Amino acid sequence: MKRNLVALPAMVVLAVLAGAYGSFFATGLLRQVPGTASVAGPLSLDNYLRFLAGGGQVPVFLDTFGFAVLLTLITALIGYPLAYFIARTESRFLRVFFLAVLVATFLSGSVTRAYGWMVILGNRGLLNSLLLNAGLIEQPFRILYRQLGVGIALVHFLLPFFVLTVVGGIRNVPRALEEASRDLGCGPARTFMRVTLPLSLPAVAEGMALSLALALSAFLFPLMLGGGRVRLVANYIYDQIFVAFDIPFAAVVSAGFLVCSCAALLVMAGLQRLLLRRFATGGLT
Amino acid sequence: MIGEKEPGGISAAGLEVSGLTKHYGAHAAIQQIGFRLERGALLTLLGPSGCGKTTLLRAIGGFVAADAGRILVEGQDIGALPPERRPTATVFQGYALFPHMSVAANVAYGLKMQRIPRAEIAGRVRDALAAVQLSAMAERMPSQLSGGQQQRVALARCLVVRPRILLLDEPFSALDRNLREEMQVELRKLQQRLGITTVVVTHDQQEAFILSDWVAVMNAGRLHQFDRPAGVYDAPATRFVASFTGMTNLLEGQAEGQEFVVPGIGRFPLPAAAPPGSLLGLRPGALRLVEPGDPAACAVGEVGFVAMTGAEALCEIACPGGALQVAVPRRPGAPVTGARVGVALAEPSQAVVLAA
Fold first, then answer.
1. Nearest-angstrom CA–CA distance, B127 and B135
2. B106 and B154 belong to one structural domain
3. Tell me, what CATH number does B210's domain have?
4. What pTM was computed for the model?
5. Nearest CA to CA, how far is A165 from chain B (Å)?
6. B215/B267 same-domain check
7. How many domains does the structure of chain B reveal?
8. What digits encode the pLDDT tens for the residues A202-243?
9. Does residue B228 share a domain with residue B198?
């Protein structure tokens, strides 16, 4: 009974959050008053049926999921070595320095960073000027206003989330386990593959889930660096509300998107469990 | 510090260490460690925490790169090899079992690295688990085992790769007392049956005496004595070895003829010549209590503190020049606090002369 009382504040917070979401989804049961931004009854499932029939959102969904999965994989590939270095370096100075740089990118606002990327990646930006002056290219290489530029900015945005999650996971792998592996005749590379990596896998999965969720919900970077050509689900929903004024359909799209995102995270968790079970019996060699 | 001659005149010792030194900054973790251990013998490295015993063990296993010195295993210099290429296997403190692998996968780990056929691995894993009586636990995860069982798995994981040197770092410190004694005997029997050269790190002198063929007593990075357990106990080489192995009466005094005179305490018969500056070392068990007027009494004092230690009571006898610790059998009529008693040698040969 006492434990339930302690849980009360957390439940109130959750109820408010869920309620806010819930009211948004309930809006999906209403319909747009034509030509206005208002909504009115009667209740119907029309919007949900329109969504399930593929109300123009399917290509955006596919693009967004494909893009987010790709960004998550790139983030993990770049982030894991970085996290490993931070977790395992002998030098306290280097560890603190790298962590400080990561936290600093955390603290700088997204708008600032988006402008920063414009300055660097633009047709007459720092990178292109450098390449042109070095004679490596003759025409400016277009990076901005396409997926490449948005992707670069998003990976940069996702990296600290992933790295800070995984550093802890790697540091929690006891050194003695790596030593035991070496002691039993396993070189450094195979020790990493058979001991360090599998034991840090739960943290990697956490970091990837976080990255995937953040990449799926990306809004600002595609808006500012996509030049209207990179449209992800969040931008699509934004357009439904502020361009088409169809708030009920926007609500339905976000509800559907939430379900898809949860499914994606569940699939990831399942993959992780499968992988760990194979390690348990020594099946992965 | 030379071990026994090899039978059959084989010159290579199981393990030979010479001049081994390791500094961390200005601090010397181990200094000029040297000894020679015959094949199949069990050596314990005994000393307080921070004495360098673990550093020495890790240097043999390849986890610490020594600054100077050589490590030879059966004549082969392994000093430059990484841990995975050394013929050593370590039971780590806390066991370091792989938590994401079953017991069988833990034991099979080292064999898979050697690219041994699957069928042979299965057989050897089965044999190793049988040797430590854990056949029924093969499919469990380490977290499902008790401390004693985890330790057996760690041991099986090492033995299955047939190392030429088995290293154990404080293997029993996490176990409760009954289990610890059981495991000590079990390890010793297994080690003797397999004839594997073994080095054990411990801070527990009792454990060292139970397990060992040889004991190396270390303090502050130096090897104080390399000897048989009885040698360490009966003839400690230094004052440190004496006090670390429970010789609590270390008396300062002067030799006068055949007697050692301790000011304010008494006169004790000398077992050997005592150059000036020597100490006389007496274990509490080497002394007994007598009537104050007994001609055998070496010292006279008053019973102070009495502590029950089991079969014996440990008495502190306050003399004018200091206190003596005496262990007496517990029986009716045992001394009570405040009584005036004489202290005599129970066995004159148990007195030890120590260089200061």
1. 8
2. yes
3. 3.40.50.300
4. 0.82
5. 20
6. no
7. 2
8. 899 999 999 999 999 999 899 888 888 888 999 999 988 888
9. yes
Query: Is A256 an 8 Å CB contact of chain B?
Result: no
Whether the CB-CB separation of B198 and B208 falls below 8 Å is answered with no
- Is A279 in contact with B101 (Cβ distance < 8 A)? yes
Domain of B140, in residue numbers: 7-243
B62: left (phi over 0), alpha (psi -120 to 50) or beta: left
- Are both B200 and B322 inside the same structural domain? no
Domains and CATH numbers, chain A: 56-280 (1.10.3720.10)
What is the maximal distance between C-alpha atoms in chain A?
Answer: 74
Paired residues of B198 in beta bridges? B42, B166
**B132 falls within a domain:** yes
C-beta separation of B190 from B134 below 8 A: no
pLDDT tens-digit readout, A17-39:
888 878 777 888 888 888 777 88
Reported ipTM = 0.84
> What DSSP state is assigned to residue B233?
H
Is any Cβ of chain A less than 8 angstroms from the Cβ of B59?
no
Q: Which of A178, A140, A156, A191 is nearest to A71 (CA)?
A: A156
Per-residue tokens: A182? 């070496």
Number of inter-chain CB pairs under 8 A, A vs B: 80
The answer on B321 and B224 residing in a single domain is no
